[in-house]
Amino acid sequence: MRRFALLSATAAAAATSAVTLASCVPAPQPTPNLNPGAQAAGIDADRPEDLGFPLPDNSEIEPAGATAAQTSGDEVPAGTLRPRPQNLNEAIPTIRQRGRLIVGIDQSINGLSFRDPVSGELSGFEVALSREIAADIFGNPDAVEFRFIPSTDRTAALERREVDLVAQTLSITTGRQQEIQFSAPYLSSSTRLLVQRDSGISSFEDLPGRRVCAVGASTPLETVRRVAPASDILKVATWSDCLMAVQQRQADAIIADDAILLGIADQDPFTVIPDAVTGEESYGLGIRRSTPSDDASGLVRQVNWTLERIRSDGTWDRLYDDWFTDSPLRDEMPAPVYVEEEAP
Known about the structure:
The protein is α/β, with parallel strands linked by helices.
């Protein structure tokens, strides 16, 4: 938080100095573009805030209406594999031989997966959930290696076999089910807005002509295209980048799941999440697709076994209370939907 405050203070001081110097010049001069890459990235040079700060790395402006939403928001994903007793040495031999589970996570979403600023340890609901899975596989909740993965690279990291699981607000969608497998859902959230308190935005109807931030290759990006077709979109690599963009007035709003927005709002008391809601998402753990030479179904069943256990023994309720007490998130674990299978 202090880093953002310092940036704001520095920007204010720079702006004051610029005004003072300009008053000494006999003839007004055109405002210089202080961000040389702005126009190349599709930024409107007439928007003053785009001239002072560079946009986040690997970001891009998508003009309003340039890309149609690829989903209607009404698709119903297929179910997942039912958990069953397994010989783990046969079901997940590579993981058992390695002696640890490798999980892809974020490290900057408060409440879900973040690095504690005091202890330096990774914390949050998704971190704790990953430890529960490791405990059931190895009898040791610490037998897990966490790897940071950008949101835009989650499915690719699974396809490249860089991680066994992705526990990173990965919404279960029909499109993603064509690329990876999912566990049963472990958390539900609603899609909302986050804005500065003085933005004048209180609903999605206030967004035409405003710039909205979302992470690339995310379901919220598709939601922005669907519910805010008259808004330019700032596409970034991480949700922290969206927060920075809103603080620097490079974006007017963030559209994301409230599980994500709650963590962002915790980092800036000058932001607010209006009551407006559009759609719901359910998060599942991402697992690579099975191939004839690489059957990942054993891992899917094992993860779902853990999810059934934490539902029945009260662990899920405890984790929710640890990280989301008094939040607007739904305080019950989503019901699983299993595909029909022949008895083994």
